[in-house]
Amino acid sequence: MAINTREVIIVTESDKGSGLLYWLSSLFAAFIILLCLAVGIVGLLLPVIPGLLFLLIAAMLAARLSPALDRRLRKYPQMRRYLDSGHGFLELNWREKIRFVFWLILKVAIDLLMLLFRGIRWLLQLAVSRSP
User: Fold this and answer.
1) Does residue 84 form part of some domain?
2) Predicted local confidence at residue 13, as pLDDT
3) How far apart, in whole angstroms, are the C-alpha atoms of residue 107 and residue 5?
4) Residue 32 maps to a domain
5) Which of 79, 77, 25 is closest to 57 using CA atoms?
6) What pLDDT digit, counting tens, does each position of 49-64 carry?
């Protein structure tokens, strides 16, 4: 009988609160959320670090742990798309996970640049409309 060494342990809804694996994975996720929040806040102050990107990652991870936060974030269409894109992530192999994270970060960066350009355009229009 062959043993599959590539088995992945996935925590299901029925496992919640019942085992050490769920507790440890929740603790690890909370650590990553706090780390992303800290880097995100520093990134808001320093222009070198993409702060909003890390805040978005923290929000996506926190939504996986909290159904109430998930419902609240899903009220916004853009956040709903980001949250839906992460489903099935655990079933991917490492190469596909890295590729997924790369494309997600690229998508968020492009969205943030578009938001920045819209804000600059709005400020320019406001300045032109107020000029004598």
Assistant:
1) yes
2) 47
3) 34
4) yes
5) 79
6) 777 778 888 888 888 8
Q: How many domains is the chain partitioned into structurally? A: 1
pLDDT over 60 (residue 15): no
- Cα angle for residues 74, 90, 71 (degrees, 5° grid): 15
Separation CA 43–CA 51 (nearest Å): 4
Q: In which domain, by residue range, is 118 found?
A: 15-130
> Is 80 contained in some domain?
yes
Average pLDDT of span 41-49: 79
Asked whether the beta carbons of 54 and 43 are under 8 A apart, the reply is yes
Residue 2 belongs to a domain: no
The structure tokens listed for 12 are: 């299901």
Which tokens go with 110? 């492009």
User: What tens digit of pLDDT does each residue of 81-112 get?
Assistant: 777 776 676 677 788 878 877 887 787 778 77
